[in-house]
Amino acid sequence: MIPRYSRPEMTTIWSPESKFRIWFEIEAHACDALAELGVIPKSAAATIWEKGKAAEFDVDRIDEIERETKHDVIAFLTHLAEIVGPDARFVHQGMTSSDVLDTCFNVQLVKASDILLADMDKLLEAVKKRALEHKDTITIGRSHGIHAEPTTFGVKLAFAYAEFERCRTRLEAAREEIATCAISGAVGTFANIDPRVEEHVASAMGLKAEPVSTQVIPRDRHAMFFATLGVIASSVERLSVEIRHLQRTEVLEAEEYFSPGQKGSSAMPHKRNPVLTENLTGLARMVRSYAMPAMENVALWHERDISHSSVERMIGPDATVTLDFALARLTGVIEKLVVYPETMLANLNKFKGLVHSQRVLLALTQAGVSREDAYRLVQRNAMKVWEDGKDFLTELLADKDVRAALSEEDLREKFDLGYHTKQVDAIFKRVFG
Amino acid sequence: MIPRYSRPEMTTIWSPESKFRIWFEIEAHACDALAELGVIPKSAAATIWEKGKAAEFDVDRIDEIERETKHDVIAFLTHLAEIVGPDARFVHQGMTSSDVLDTCFNVQLVKASDILLADMDKLLEAVKKRALEHKDTITIGRSHGIHAEPTTFGVKLAFAYAEFERCRTRLEAAREEIATCAISGAVGTFANIDPRVEEHVASAMGLKAEPVSTQVIPRDRHAMFFATLGVIASSVERLSVEIRHLQRTEVLEAEEYFSPGQKGSSAMPHKRNPVLTENLTGLARMVRSYAMPAMENVALWHERDISHSSVERMIGPDATVTLDFALARLTGVIEKLVVYPETMLANLNKFKGLVHSQRVLLALTQAGVSREDAYRLVQRNAMKVWEDGKDFLTELLADKDVRAALSEEDLREKFDLGYHTKQVDAIFKRVFG
Amino acid sequence: MIPRYSRPEMTTIWSPESKFRIWFEIEAHACDALAELGVIPKSAAATIWEKGKAAEFDVDRIDEIERETKHDVIAFLTHLAEIVGPDARFVHQGMTSSDVLDTCFNVQLVKASDILLADMDKLLEAVKKRALEHKDTITIGRSHGIHAEPTTFGVKLAFAYAEFERCRTRLEAAREEIATCAISGAVGTFANIDPRVEEHVASAMGLKAEPVSTQVIPRDRHAMFFATLGVIASSVERLSVEIRHLQRTEVLEAEEYFSPGQKGSSAMPHKRNPVLTENLTGLARMVRSYAMPAMENVALWHERDISHSSVERMIGPDATVTLDFALARLTGVIEKLVVYPETMLANLNKFKGLVHSQRVLLALTQAGVSREDAYRLVQRNAMKVWEDGKDFLTELLADKDVRAALSEEDLREKFDLGYHTKQVDAIFKRVFG
Amino acid sequence: MIPRYSRPEMTTIWSPESKFRIWFEIEAHACDALAELGVIPKSAAATIWEKGKAAEFDVDRIDEIERETKHDVIAFLTHLAEIVGPDARFVHQGMTSSDVLDTCFNVQLVKASDILLADMDKLLEAVKKRALEHKDTITIGRSHGIHAEPTTFGVKLAFAYAEFERCRTRLEAAREEIATCAISGAVGTFANIDPRVEEHVASAMGLKAEPVSTQVIPRDRHAMFFATLGVIASSVERLSVEIRHLQRTEVLEAEEYFSPGQKGSSAMPHKRNPVLTENLTGLARMVRSYAMPAMENVALWHERDISHSSVERMIGPDATVTLDFALARLTGVIEKLVVYPETMLANLNKFKGLVHSQRVLLALTQAGVSREDAYRLVQRNAMKVWEDGKDFLTELLADKDVRAALSEEDLREKFDLGYHTKQVDAIFKRVFG
């Protein structure tokens, strides 16, 4: 997480101020439940809420106390006591630091997920808009980087849409994974705190109670969360790589938007680089890499150790901030993507008409020519296109052996691009409903 | 995937024989649909089924043809033609190799998932059985590897149960991810094949039609699948590491089963090593590592390239076979785990009664002693236990300042282990219902 | 490691036969040293060598014994005793299984390294040959996939040569890392075996004695080894991706060799796919992924645990066999690479002469035109090339403002491609000496 | 990289101020070389040095210009021009941004390496000191977490010393990898800049000239660099895990230092947690994870793309700052580690004398008892120790069958711990010379 690749709404989640505010809410909700259960006075719970809500927590002061106590939660509670007064002694009754820390981390991840889901919705909207716009924009489909058969640019985007919809579903499942709360005390036995406190806090914070925790919330949940972010980042990479390919000088079927005043890096007006999607490719590598330490975090020792903590202090912000930035950047790229339908057509026709050779081959076989002969006939005409730049249809029309099997009308019909796009409606119906 | 860590049911899925059988089924089901649509004769479809079903595909013969054609699907189709006869020319109409390869790979992954789900059920059953058995077996809970507060061995296992139940849910979602079928022809446009063929094959093979494919089934699905396996493997590691810890010479609260005749590695009868769970720790590292190439596979170029293929030929078998083996091995370890409740109790009491010091501290404060004084009182008695091996309760009872605040009865009550386990029923209810 | 991506010389290293042969040699060399030290009779050592050397170890028999003893080294020693007779009791005196297993693993890795080094030499030779051949073959250099400035195809290959030379140096260092031998007994204290035995075996097997081992050879060595293989695989990927780019339909400056009889996947003669380099891209992902579990293997518990073993049984063969195959395949691709210098030139001139715009700009500023004016002058002519397909030099020559600063001769000189390649000799001298 | 796990000396390297200072030095040294070659006036070079050296670069101002130009190097050069005046037009002649950026990144990595090397020296010193101190401190060696044979705590540390010495050597090699400079202009052809400029700048900045670059310095160098850091982090993890194990309540042979006033997390005086080494375990996971994106960065497209940039802006600081912090923290842990030799001895004797059973077994066989009988004799006495807490030597002395083969003196001699440590001097000589 570095400012260059960060957006404020997401980084705010990870600020000390946000963290302490969440800590306070967890403690105050717990007080409500404890008061309801008669463990602490109701008036105390009310005071804690009132004073804590009004206060701004002083991060420097808390840091100062932590330098002394070497314990962040105690430092916060001490500062809270400075604000709340004597009733502060009713805060944190029967709880452990992990109850606060782990529940807070999950609250932060849930908030981050909500931003990511909104990001995804915007990305989906942008992709859909451009897909509909280019539903019938003919372009060549490529396998292995080599021309294959025609498709439309809209179909390419429909594919991305379907992929990001899957990503959205995964993100929702990932959010669900970490939307839990644990207030279970030392080693998770509830010895000093009633499970009903946990249920209350969970509900108040928009979470579910963790069915069984061991002081810490189990880290397989977080492993799944960060692994999912890694998969989503890989899909960001996929669309980014597609755009980088399309913007290559020799292809130039689409390119990232350049503002009017913007200059390329040199005097050459064609020197517009797909720097945004290259950047996204790198960011995807980063988000993906965070999945590994998250998985290594699962096997904590016994009821818990604290090795996960340093990892999460890093990847919590790093993964969510970076993916948020990446999704927003990709949305912008798609929204403003400059598309060149004429170049698409020109590229498709690079080898004049050759893209239809397979259909001619099939037509010949269907007309009774053996497959071997048909292949030979097609190939000898194709070679003139390939090597001498001739027009494929013209050559075929002039080939007696071909004409023995196929009429001019037959042949012309095989050069209809519409043949390849006749199912585009069906595909769009599947994807966009 | 090596024989030492493989089980036949799973490896069979990945045999050439299985693969060719699935290829045949995909082709034959497609023929049914093509016949239904009137594209090929119904009699041809019937013949293809009849002859293909009866035949055993000759792997050596197919390999021989592949050496010539350098194309595995063509080699198979050629061999199929040798079996089916003239009607074979109606096979594979309008399809691409990817239609067969990708659908087959997903069929194999679905079959593998089904085995893994069954493995998981057995593991859950074993964990549950031992959890119920040891619901009330008192043991020390540990944070940071250091004694914390008492819990029960059953609660430890309940925790594992909840974790593997989450893993099961994730595995089902992962199975769903890859349970799709694509029969969409070159670059996925259905130009040469009706989408209804895809729908028929999908349904016949127990899959869903891929909403939009680009000749290949999108690899974000597989990335999610293998990432999920990596998370599950990490949970296998967690429970394995727990057992390795419990079997340490100094702890020895549980150990892997050793058969009567089995000898440790030397003359020392205590030399029983937790080799199975150590092995599982290593296998987890492997399964986890396969998530990375699976994620890198997502960003194929344009409609498809073939870089994913070599990766999947390896990690398809490697990840599923290894995880299957690991789940089964872990199940065996849990089923036969030798548990030593007396050692658990002895370890818990290593520092005589000290485990109750926190309750005494709380009782003192509740009795009106200031927190600072209470801490001092507890600590000066605790030190005698810690350094001189005295009994904590005896020392407290003899301390006048303590007794000024707490009666003997009060003090004795604080040494009740039941205090820590009073919520075990509630926890079990949450986990096992 | 699957047969499709394996070469026999490398797989042989990992066969049971090879392993048992190495085990025998370690044991027999140890016997020599023990005999020299007077611990066992010299005649016994002689007999062990004589009988063991002549014998073929029966893998099935050893497996059979292992099923009984559940210990692979004991199974081997038992079988060896069947071959050697009574003198077998002098084998393995004071040694542990790890002494044999770890030293053997390192012998295997050293042998594998030697093959990889030979592979690398062949690759370097192939790259050098083609680099020299195309030293002066003009081609466009690309940044961001966008045309930048001219270079030569030989320079591109010189770059690859320099990279693989670095890889060779790294591979030698990696070989050095794992070329160690440990014969140090339980927990590595030499309590039951003299360090001179270790020194003798090390020297006899072409290894160095591990300065200090803990029953096992430390796994940071292996982590470094496999990480290095991952880096090398990434360089294989780099050159492979370059070729995949060059073979794209729109670029087509080079392509993988297709044998005369070979057919593309369809009737289209241009449909030649860069399947070998795509395959190499996938294989690189695999080799890279093995670095992670190798690093996780480092932190074994105390003097040793056995969690590394399952990992190494997999990645030992997987990483070396796959990289060997990849290096050989890449060598073949380079040797036979079909290069199209005319297309290179045509691509370079896609925008007629525009590639020289930067030099014209510099010349204008050097002739006293302000940078802003110069940019404007260049751009207005460049736009005619870019948008209307005009010839850049023609336009410049016809532009009065340009001509006010630069003569025709001046301008023509700026269109000299030789300007860009004048340092090629210097670069080649640096790389090839 | 977060403040909590950062040390100022290392973070300073990555500050904007440091970066701009290095950029300036690269440009200024290049001017010297250009002046020497007569390309620019010597007086200009002198002015540039003089003014630039005296100036403080205004990061906010540069950021402001970058927001306009969207190009960081141009922004810097513009700001430099504001400082230097008209002579600034002679700066950056014939260079590209990459020349500055890549050379600067390598300068930063070299500086970071130098700090890491110094860290490593301090760690080695600390480990050596404690190793010598505990050279003869008897402790049990453990395999699989199970007691094996005696060793000394000094030998354990000698092992760590040897491992970190290897890490130091690797770190030096990694430093060498990235200690290169490229000033080669667009696509690395030196068309607009003389190679002698590169040589001068390289030498002036303490680097070597990159033999052949492609506008960018090849990223296999950086992959190797970050992979090496990952391996080193894994060794940090190994020693940290050892300490975590030793500090377990049941083992407690050593523990991290707690300052006198420091309190554990609760009233229990034994509740001292190995939080520093747990933290190091997590940090190791992070440093390790950065190796993957670094390897993925290698395969840039053609002469270069910019996907590596976002990765390196993150892992450059993240990996070096985190490893620096980890090495320093580990050094502190080792320096202050509290070692309990008496507990080590007590643990070793947990099963009274049983640790010597292997020697008794060997002695019996050497005295002519068959191996099977010897095993039976040892085991029947060992079982009394294992199950009934008897003393092993006492039992053996009372066993007639044992005594038939071994005298009391013989038996007593087998219980000499010195037997296991007799080679400690030899091991220390190997490690410490």
TrEMBL record, chains A, B, C, D:
<keyword id="KW-0456">Lyase</keyword>
<dbReference type="InterPro" id="IPR008948">
    <property type="entry name" value="L-Aspartase-like"/>
</dbReference>
<dbReference type="InterPro" id="IPR024083">
    <property type="entry name" value="Fumarase/histidase_N"/>
</dbReference>
<comment type="pathway">
    <text>Purine metabolism; IMP biosynthesis via de novo pathway; 5-amino-1-(5-phospho-D-ribosyl)imidazole-4-carboxamide from 5-amino-1-(5-phospho-D-ribosyl)imidazole-4-carboxylate: step 2/2.</text>
</comment>
<dbReference type="Pfam" id="PF10397">
    <property type="entry name" value="ADSL_C"/>
</dbReference>
<protein>
    <recommendedName>
        <fullName>Adenylosuccinate lyase</fullName>
        <ecNumber>4.3.2.2</ecNumber>
    </recommendedName>
</protein>
<dbReference type="GO" id="GO:0005829">
    <property type="term" value="C:cytosol"/>
</dbReference>
<dbReference type="InterPro" id="IPR000362">
    <property type="entry name" value="Fumarate_lyase_fam"/>
</dbReference>
<dbReference type="GO" id="GO:0070626">
    <property type="term" value="F:(S)-2-(5-amino-1-(5-phospho-D-ribosyl)imidazole-4-carboxamido) succinate lyase (fumarate-forming) activity"/>
</dbReference>
<comment type="pathway">
    <text>Purine metabolism; AMP biosynthesis via de novo pathway; AMP from IMP: step 2/2.</text>
</comment>
<dbReference type="GO" id="GO:0044208">
    <property type="term" value="P:'de novo' AMP biosynthetic process"/>
</dbReference>
<comment type="similarity">
    <text>Belongs to the lyase 1 family. Adenylosuccinate lyase subfamily.</text>
</comment>
<dbReference type="InterPro" id="IPR019468">
    <property type="entry name" value="AdenyloSucc_lyase_C"/>
</dbReference>
<keyword id="KW-0658">Purine biosynthesis</keyword>
<dbReference type="InterPro" id="IPR004769">
    <property type="entry name" value="Pur_lyase"/>
</dbReference>
<dbReference type="InterPro" id="IPR022761">
    <property type="entry name" value="Fumarate_lyase_N"/>
</dbReference>
<dbReference type="InterPro" id="IPR020557">
    <property type="entry name" value="Fumarate_lyase_CS"/>
</dbReference>
<dbReference type="Pfam" id="PF00206">
    <property type="entry name" value="Lyase_1"/>
</dbReference>
<dbReference type="GO" id="GO:0004018">
    <property type="term" value="F:N6-(1,2-dicarboxyethyl)AMP AMP-lyase (fumarate-forming) activity"/>
</dbReference>
<feature type="domain" description="Adenylosuccinate lyase C-terminal">
    <location>
        <begin position="352"/>
        <end position="432"/>
    </location>
</feature>
